[in-house]
Design brief:
Number of strands: 5
Shape: rod-shaped
Number of helices: 5
Order of helices and strands: HHEEEHHEEH
Helix content: 55-70%
Radius of gyration: 38 Å
Structural class: mainly alpha
Distance between the termini: 116 Å
Strand order of the largest sheet: 3-5-4
Length: 183
């Protein structure tokens, strides 16, 4: 009997130990889960705050400042002629008539929307424009030279904005370039 009692006592003790170990494992797992949740919560919160600040608030503030202090540039540098918007100084305006200077060829421009041409490209178009309009080549060359835009010190090559150059042509020779060409 002693041995039976002893076995029963040992079984009870073993069950208690197993129950305690199970309870400890359960508590450890729940702590681990809560730790995972406690780590994820600040990460998600920081991501949402960063997204809101950098993706919404910052762009709106910068756009507002640009509209306030630089409205012409912020709105795309739209060029007006006789009260109408006719193009932008920032992109190619697709002049295709032979009486105008044309933008860069597609092989010369990576984006196909460059508003400027090189000085040499402008000079190479003078014979075509002179032939189509009757304007002397020397006058066209002088007009190109008056519209050359510089570069920073020694870096880069001189260039000409096609829209500005064509507007100068229209203003300089109104009998040849009448307003109906821009409509």
């Amino acid at each position: 009997m002693n041995q039976t009692k002893k076995r029963k006592t040992q079984d009870v003790v073993r069950r208690k130990k197993l129950a305690e170990e199970k309870k400890e494992r359960s508590e450890a797992e729940s702590q681990l889960k809560s730790r995972k949740h406690s780590i994820a919560r600040p990460v998600v919160g920081l991501a949402l705050i960063s997204l809101t600040a950098c993706g919404l608030i910052f762009p709106l503030v910068i756009t507002g400042i640009a509209q306030l202090f630089f409205p012409y540039q912020a709105n795309g540098e739209i060029v007006q002629f006789d009260g109408r918007a006719i193009g932008s100084n920032l992109i190619d305006n697709n002049f295709t008539l032979p009486i105008f200077f044309h933008g860069r060829n597609q092989s010369q421009s990576a984006s196909h929307v460059d508003p400027d041409i090189t000085l040499q490209d402008a000079y190479s178009q003078i014979p075509r424009i002179s032939l189509a309009t009757g304007i002397p080549s020397t006058s066209l060359r002088q007009l190109v030279n008056e519209n050359v835009e510089g570069t920073f010190w020694i870096f880069g090559s001189p260039y000409v904005n096609v829209l500005r150059l064509n507007l100068a042509l229209i203003k300089e020779y109104p009998s040849i370039y009448n307003e109906s060409l821009l409509k």
